[in-house]
Amino acid sequence: MIVCIAEKPSVAREIARIIGATTARDGYLEGNGYQVTWTYGHLCTLKEPHDYTEAWKIWSLGQLPMIPQRFGIKLIHQEHIERQFAVIQNLMQKAEGIVNCGDAGQEGELIQRWVMQKAGAKCPVKRLWISSMTDEAIAEGFQMLKDQDDYQSLYLAGVSRAIGDWLLGMNATRLYTLKYGQNHQVLSIGRVQTPTLALIVNRQKEIEQFKPEAYWILSTTYRDTQFLSTKGKFTKKEEGEKFLQTISGKPFTVTDVQKKNGTEQPPQLYDLTSLQVDCNKKYSMSAEQTLNIIQGLYERKLTTYPRVDTQYLSDDIYPKCPQTLQGLMETYSQLLAPLGGKTLKKSKRVFDSSKVTDHHAIIPTGVPARNLTDMERHVYDLIARRFIAVFYPDCKFATTTVMGRVEDIDFKATGKTILEEGWRAVYKKDVKDFVQTTDKKDSNDNNEERTLPAFVKGESGEHVPSLTEKWTTPPKFYTEATLLRAMETAGKFVEDEQLRAALKENGIGRPSSRAGIIETLFKRHYIKREKKNLIATPTGIELIDTIKEELLKSCELTGIWEKKLRDIEARKYDPAQFIDELKEQIRQIVIDVLADNSNRRVTTLSDADMGNCLPSLRTRTSYQRKDSLWMQPMERRLQLQVTI
């Protein structure tokens, strides 16, 4: 028998149906020479400190750093997991071959490899690697199974990430809890979560320390059009008033009229982060909500694999696009009509195999989308419209710049007129929407559209000058949308798509993990929401203030780690070197913290305020305090905080 192992029962059922394994057994399906079983996500995890040595049961500064000679894995101690693993182990030990049908990504590879290792599988292993769950994709994937060795570097990157998170999370959490914690509560430190918290705290401090300053803008109105002075801002009112007096009562003369035509390309396809950003901006959905919804749409065969960081399609997808668009006809017939009977545009901004590694951008599969919830429709509609729009012509517009002068002071007005809307027609409000929205303007429309009157060079006339007082404004609080962008670009909040793409390689966290990181900060009560804004709590602020080791909270340094992990996946960096470097960094952090004699403390929240945070050690009867040593490991709860 060939044993196929998927990541979820629902996925296993779809695969089993396609390959003919239709007989239900206890924990698997069987038929046509296949046995199809499943995990529930992670069944195995890295061993915890006390699994390596009894000495590490005690939370003691004297036992740090904890660095195992060799890392090992163990089965997660939950009844349903242990029962399912017994089924998997029995099947694998009798199998002629195994097909790894886990999610086609780093985490999926790690999950299944650990299960196979723990089960003692010895037979040859093939890899099913697909980007959508359609019947066609599954069938084609089984016809083109890959060798497991092709994905060895992906596995090594996943293992390196897990070990790195263990080393930093386990050691730094115990170190900071024992050294700086109060009320016997855990101070959770993580390789990604702590720099992310630092982003929020530092932005909040910028806002709190911001001192608004007044400035003045000189403008004038001529023929119902406002012209701004090219002199810019005046920091002193007297200086602005001097120029205001100079131009008062003097005629305004148009000195130049320039018209320039331009084009605007369609927005690029979605990767996971850009989809989460738009869902947060438009529908106030959290990053985790968006991830859960798009994962569900993928499993229902409506969209392609979601956990991606590319906005491109490989060239071999192009011939399949007419069929995909045809599948959208039921809902988007009006938008698809202009594309009918024409050869689809093939742009390098959309189709570029060199920009695609394991998976391409998120697009619809062409399977009709029916019986969706409101939130599912929102997410699906964004993806479908974006996919349709890339085949539309560029938007054509005209920009008019009018220069004027009063005495020797120059003024400027600009206007933009849409000549041919092109892809913007996909977002017009008079098109019958799949999702009814109340947005006044689509987020792609960032430029103010203003049609100017017809001006002629040399014309002159009366005008109404004014001097307007304005105040500088502080930076904005992070929202989930802007925080995701900052995480993606190692702390640099970047809207420009080209610059964003250049910085993505050094982002902190993986696209699929960033939503979980943000949720972890909420659960730890390090941050809270105020409307859309993310606000650091006193505990979060004090924790970042207490951490003097730049390595733990620097986005740039964490971004460099992420770059090395990507290089491991690309076979450009040695995973052993990555782990050795991190071990040395942990040793140095322990030395530095133990040398701190400042008696700093972090004021943690009361038990009543903890909510979803880790339980207080004081409230758990299995913990005892003796001579400043905290007994018993955090076990499963601490394990959750290091697998990030």
Rg computed from alpha carbons, rounded to a whole number of angstroms: 29 Å
What's the overall average pLDDT, rounded? Answer: 88
Strand order of the largest sheet: 2-3-4-1-7-8-9
- Helix percent reads 25-40%
* Number of helices in the DSSP assignment: 22
Low-confidence stretches: 430-447, 610-644
**Sheet with the most strands?**
7 strands, mixed
Distance between the termini: 36 Å
- Going by helix content, strand content and strand pairing, the class is alpha+beta
- Number of E-type strands: 20
Principal-axes shape call: flat
What portion of the residues fall into strands of 2 or more residues? 15-25%
Please give a structural write-up.
By secondary structure, the protein is α+β, with helices and mostly antiparallel strands. The chain is built from 22 helices and 20 strands. Strand 10 (214-222) and strand 11 form a beta hairpin. The relative contact order is 0.14.
